Amino acid sequence: MTRLSTRSATMLAGVGLLSAGLLIGCSQSQPAQQTAAPAATPTADLPADLSDHPKLVAPLQGDVALEFTKPDTKRDKDLVVTKIEVKNTDKGAIAGLKVREDWLDKAGNPLSGSEDRLRKLLMPGETATLTLTAPFNTKMDHNHLMFSHANGAVNPKEVKSFDETDSKAKGSN
Questions:
Q1: CB neighbourhood size of 5 (10 A)
Q2: What pLDDT, in 10s, does the model give residues 81-121?
Q3: Average pLDDT over residues 19-40
Q4: How does pLDDT run across 67-90, given as a tens digit for each residue?
Q5: Rounded distance between C-alpha atoms, residue 56 and residue 70, angstroms
Q6: How many Cβ atoms from other residues are within 10 Å of residue 100's Cβ?
Q7: How would you class 68 by CB atoms within 10 Å of its CB: exposed for 0-12, middle for 13-18, buried for 19 or more?
Q8: Interval 145-166: pLDDT, tens
Q9: End-to-end CA distance of the chain, in Å?
């Protein structure tokens, strides 16, 4: 306890001397030197045209429309790797897109599964590839995919290719 009080007294004495020295230094009649702050020019670093800079985008809430191609599933040693290409066909950005894959046996009993989440916004018309890896089981028969996003449900639609939907949209105009 005496060590603590000795340290406290030493600190208080040091603070007192420091403040007294500052007061004495300020009371002398020396003119204070003013240091000029560097001129801040925030507009000098920015380009004149800001149209190419990213803007904040509010993600969609509720149900969203999404297209995906047939999943490409391959066995890699003791894993089953599924790659899925998705495309945002809605009018706004999709946040936190998640795909869950469950593997079932012939009787419909669950065996294993995995999920992958897109960690960035999926902008309208943009495509992305999600990769799912699950441990291999000899009883695997078929898989089931479930799509969701951070702010609601997803209405997925399987297409043969993304070019097919683009040509249908162009032909209808």
A1: 9
A2: 999 999 999 999 999 999 999 999 999 999 999 999 999 99
A3: 53
A4: 999 999 999 989 999 999 999 999
A5: 32
A6: 15
A7: buried
A8: 999 999 999 999 999 998 755 5
A9: 87
User: Could you tell me the two tokens for 42?
Assistant: 């925030």
- Give Dmax over CA atoms of the chain in angstroms: 95
Please count the other Cβ atoms lying within 10 Å of the Cβ belonging to residue 159: 16
Measure the CA–CA gap between 30 and 34, rounded to whole angstroms.
12
Residue 113 and residue 100 in contact, taking contact as beta carbons nearer than 8 Å: yes
Angle at 15 between CA 13 and CA 18, to 5 degrees: 110
More confident residue, 1 or 52: 52
Q: Show the domains of the chain with their CATH numbers.
A: 74-159 (2.60.40)
The rounded distance, in Å, linking the Cα atoms of 118 and 129 is 9
